[in-house]
Design brief:
Strand order of the largest sheet: 5-2-1-6-7-8
CATH class of the largest domain: Alpha Beta
Helix content: 25-40%
Radius of gyration: 25 Å
Strand content: 15-25%
Shape: elongated
Number of domains: 2
Largest sheet: 6 strands, parallel
Mean pLDDT: 94
CATH superfamily of the largest domain: Crotonobetainyl-coa:carnitine coa-transferase, domain 1
Structural class: alpha/beta
Oligomer: single chain
């Protein structure tokens, strides 16, 4: 019996022309690159993607000195090639149109209608390449009264309701709306954009035609409210900020311990009964006020202080050890240094170190685990314009591939 030949990555052979910058668009194109697509990132000569300047911190070079490659840029741009083209110039527009004619996917996050002046909008490029899948990412979408407005993650977290349900409850110290500690709306928009692109690719197999994907940060943020949005639509009650507590499950929040904090994520009555046994208060599970989740929710104000008085009697490690043995979901509140030192994180290989032209760059692995066609980390995040001549040759056969020219151009434009 002979071994089967290795299978190609899922998106191998697909070409992505990435006109996006900052986070939502680059996050989507990085996923496509991780899955095997040839992603070409188009950047402004001289400055490049805005996030290249969003530091410190910056990558440390082999000599230990900081480079001009920001950590922010590095997080969302591996498995791509960078070309530096001025789309405001007639020559640049012609080159980009030629590249789009050879592409399977164009990804952009300019203001609505902003690329029409360059002949790079969907209508113009669809005329050149009817098979093209064109994904637009904007703050508010291609239509509606806000369509022309710029949209940023922080703004959309506020307008889309996320900040109204995030933060310390009213009446407590530090009360007020809070944003999430990472640009979550951008990340989720990148994921939804990727899903839309994959769906359009599947449909193209039947029709032979591409289509326009309209992805808006506001749409994504409202959709991602999930049960909180449903609670309002079904129950008619506006959700409120509850800190780390859950509106429908108790106890499901953080609790102080003797040395730090821990999370209890008790999702059913059996788990609660087992917690009570470990905590030395089995009677709580028999108390009519606490025996079922609806009753625990109704009597939250009584139960939570009792739990807090108990959890402070042991350290986080002691609680986690005892509760894990009882099959009660719990865990520490880790700092990022503790996250990357966690044995489970290390066992899963979540940190991936890639060789970079300026040294070594540490990245976070893709969470997509495919058994037969796994993600490959083929390229580190590129230098600005590093692959201009190479890409023009590969896609257009218009210029000879000369690595030395690519290096010189990258140095000239970085």
């Amino acid at each position: 019996m002979t071994d089967s030949p290795p299978r190609a990555q899922p998106l191998a052979g697909l070409r992505v022309l990435d006109l996006s910058r900052v986070l939502a668009g680059p996050w989507a194109s990085q996923i496509l690159g991780d899955l095997g697509a040839d992603v070409v990132k188009v950047e402004r000569p001289g400055s490049g993607d805005d996030t290249r300047a969003w530091g410190p911190p910056y990558l440390q070079g082999a000599d230990g000195q900081a480079t001009r490659e920001s950590a922010y840029f590095l997080c969302a741009n591996r498995n791509k090639r960078s070309i530096a083209i001025d789309m405001a110039s007639p020559e640049g527009q012609q080159q980009l149109q030629q590249l789009a004619a050879q592409a399977d996917i164009v990804l952009e996050n300019f203001k609505t209608g902003g690329l029409a002046q360059y002949g790079l909008d969907y209508a113009s490029l669809n005329a050149l390449n009817p098979r093209l899948i064109y994904c637009s990412i904007t703050g508010f979408g291609q239509n509606g009264p806000y369509a022309a407005r710029p949209g940023y993650d922080f703004l959309i977290q506020a307008m889309g309701g996320l900040m109204s349900i995030t933060g310390v409850p009213d009446g407590e110290d530090g009360a007020g709306p809070q944003k999430v500690g990472v640009a979550l709306t951008d990340i989720l928009t990148g994921l939804y954009a990727t899903i839309g692109i994959l769906a359009a690719l599947q449909e193209r197999r039947h029709s032979g035609l591409g289509q326009h994907i309209d992805t808006a940060l506001l749409d994504v943020q409202v959709a991602a409210l999930a049960n909180q949005a449903s609670n309002y639509l079904v129950g008619g009650v506006v959700p409120r900020r509850m800190g780390n507590a859950h509106p429908s499950i108790v106890p499901y929040q953080s609790f102080p311990t003797a040395d730090s904090d821990m999370i209890l994520a008790i999702g059913n009555d059996g788990q609660f009964a087992r917690f009570c046994q470990v905590a030395g208060h089995p009677q709580w599970a028999q108390d009519a006020r606490f025996a079922t989740n609806p009753q625990r929710v109704a009597h939250r104000s009584v139960l939570i202080p009792l739990l807090r008085q108990t959890t402070v009697m042991r350290t986080t490690a002691e609680w986690v050890s005892a509760l894990e043995q009882a099959d009660v979901p719990c865990g520490p509140v880790n700092r990022l240094d503790e996250v990357f030192a966690d044995p489970q994180v290390q066992a899963r290989g979540i940190q991936v170190d890639l060789p970079h032209p300026l040294g070594t760059v540490a990245t976070v692995a893709s969470p997509v685990r495919l058994s037969a066609t796994p993600v490959q980390y083929r390229r580190p995040p590129p230098l600005l314009g590093q692959h201009t001549q190479e890409v023009l040759h590969d896609w257009l056969a218009s210029q000879p591939a000369d690595p030395s020219q690519s290096t010189q151009l990258a140095q000239a434009t970085s």
